[in-house]
Amino acid sequence: VLDQIFPEYVGVFGDLYSKVSLKTLLQFPTSKSVLSISECTLVDEIASLCKSRSDKWAKERAQKLRDAASRNPFQNNLFQSHIFNLEILITLILQYQEHLSKLDAEIDALAQEMEEYTILQSIPGIGEKIAATIISEIGEIDRFNHPKKLVAFAGVDPSVYASGKFTASVNRITKRGSSSLRHALYMAVRCGIRDARKKKTTDEMIPRNKRLREFYDKKRNDGKPFRVAVIAYVNKLLHWIYALLKSKTDFQDTAQKLHPAK
What we know:
Elements: H1 19-27, H2 31-35, H3 39-49, H4 55-71, H5 80-112, H6 115-121, H7 128-138, H8 147-154, E1 162-163, E2 166-167, H9 179-193, E3 195-198, E4 205-207, H10 210-221, H11 226-247, H12 251-255
Antiparallel strand pairs: 1-2, 3-4
């Protein structure tokens, strides 16, 4: 619908579906509605929709919006039905986002009552959303009597292809089990291996998860491709998660007993 009314609006805001973007579009759905008011008024309207942003940011967005309105190919002869449909869609999206926010708050409140939620967040790279996803996908850790079964459940165990005397030399992960769990683990790995901050006295970077970063770097130094190293990291991370949840201890306590870099 937006392509038939205001296609140039895309790009005015960094995220088309952010609240400030949707509310601005709801208030100014056409080029005429944008160009018919002064720039100062437009700046004030945008600033009122996102009070956490600076006046400079509001002025930049207002200028982008006016430029987009000037370039818009649909200046006149718009069907009111298109505008009406656009307003309905924007309202539905805003309501949907509000419902999702409430659900997230309820999930966080429920997760706070679980000991496993706090334990998982003790692992550098795992935050609230990732911890909640892992818990919801794994369920009770007592369902698994060995960490390899948890690895298999996540679908990151290697598949073996063989036929007769032939055995494949390149094996991929099975990808069975929960794709949501694999995605959460992948995000945890990306957060865990990236550099967090510099030391105060030197330019040396301190990894978020030093022990597992050493494991990842070892795999890379051994010539393993990025994806192979990441999968190995995920596998190791699952072993850590299994050990933590089974022993009911946090990451720092368990890290002193295990040696992931080996």
